Amino acid sequence: MAVSYYYSLVGGTQTVVKKLADKLSQRGHEVGILTMYVNKKGEVEWKMEEVFEQGIRVIRWPAKPISKTSGYLSRIGKKLFNILFIPKLNFYRIMRKYDILQFYDVNDLTFPFFSLFLNIPKVFFCATLAERFSFYKKNFFPRTILKKSADIFLVSNENTRRLLLELGIEEERTFSLHYGVDGEKYHPDFTKKEDDLLLFVGALEERKGVHVLLEALRFINQPIRLILAGPVRDGVYASGLLKRASELNKDTCHKIEFLNYLEEESLIDYYQRASIFVCPSLAEEFGIVTIEALACGTPVVASRAGGLPYAIKNGVHGFLTSPGNPEELASAIELLLRDPELRLKFGKEGSTYILKNNSWDRISKELEEITFKSFKIL
Question: Homologous superfamily of 12-180+359-374 in CATH?
Fold first, then answer.
């Protein structure tokens, strides 16, 4: 498995990589994760580290951000090829030890680009394509690299499959593979529920739509506590959110609290305590946090953006609203706030459905079957 950024954190692409690696290893496969070396400040460095994390070999590879190379190389690398790093090139010797290569996350094509000429079966799990689609649609070279980077492409929902087809990738090369949850950890505890607690989990950046959620609070009369948990990805945007939240804390009956990264145990506790989970994204590939919340018995109010309608059944597990519409978002939240029986009904149905259909054991088995069939492995 190759991914530019891999941390031992909860959420997003890193969760998908870690969980699939763990489960494939348990199924008897030798699995390795190749990623860039990232220091404690989140900066990529020209260093190497090889460790074993819960039995999985993780190789953190030397690389240099292309932005720190010459101006010409920096411009053509990022704009023409969507390459964000220059890795030490003898990573080929590591990749050749594996029978199949898996790439994750279309935000950076460094590993796929530098592996184009490796004659090894390749799989690309197209995480985050919904957010990057317009870039690939407009730019010929990154689109061509993406199309040639793998033999088959995995999608978490039908919206992403449609986008791949628009980019010129043949339908027979695309396969559905949903995200999963760990049912042993993510499960309901309805004794913890707090009637006024709303939860958002995700990076603080504009596409996550937190500003829409804050604006929606203006239309909600019932006092609520809103927890916003996630790292800052856009400093300017986050500063605006902090200012807006301070105004709302002062001028309204609501209380808003910002948390940074949560350890998994604390995250699950918040999922279980929250009465409603809110995902107001303007663009979203799938939203693994939504199925984690559902697994914990928490109904979801989300925007009808990207792959979210494939993760949440409207009127069954929660409500879907128009992206960027604070009044509609507020209306859906208020409906659930006023009706604890409906919250309980949605929470129970959502948890039952997710824990049955989205276990990592099931997802890893499906990945194994897709891979074996596609590459005729007996």
Answer: Glycogen Phosphorylase B; (3.40.50.2000)
pLDDT greater than 50 at residue 329 = yes
Let me know the angle formed at the C-alpha of 34 by 260 and 31, rounded to the nearest 5 degrees: 105
| Torsion sign (Cα): 108, 110, 113, 118 | negative
Residues in the chain: 378
Question: pTM to 2 decimals?
Answer: 0.88
- Helix pair angle (140-148, 129-138), 10° resolution: 120
Could you tell me if 297 and 268 are in contact, meaning their C-beta atoms sit under 8 angstroms apart?
no
Residues 214-269 pLDDT 10s:
999 999 999 999 999 999 989 999 999 999 999 999 999 999 999 988 999 999 99
Per-domain boundaries in the chain:
12-180+359-374, 190-357
| DSSP conformational letter for 184 | T
Would you say residue 78 has pLDDT above 60? Answer: yes
Q: For residues 21 and 31, is the Cβ–Cβ distance under 8 A?
A: yes
Query: What is the dihedral angle through the alpha carbons of 272, 276, 277, 283, rounded to the nearest 10 degrees?
Result: 170
Plot region of 321 (φ>0 → left; ψ -120 to 50 → alpha; else → beta): beta
What lies within 8 Å, CB to CB, of 235 at 6+ separation is: none
DSSP letters, 296-365, are TT--EEEES-TTHHHHS-BTTTEEEE-TT-HHHHHHHHHHHHT-HHHHHHHHHHHHHHHHHH-BHHHHHH
Give the homologous superfamily in CATH for domain 190-357.
Glycogen Phosphorylase B; (3.40.50.2000)
Separation of alpha carbons 60 and 49, rounded Å? 5
Hunting for tokens 């946090």 — which residue is that?
289
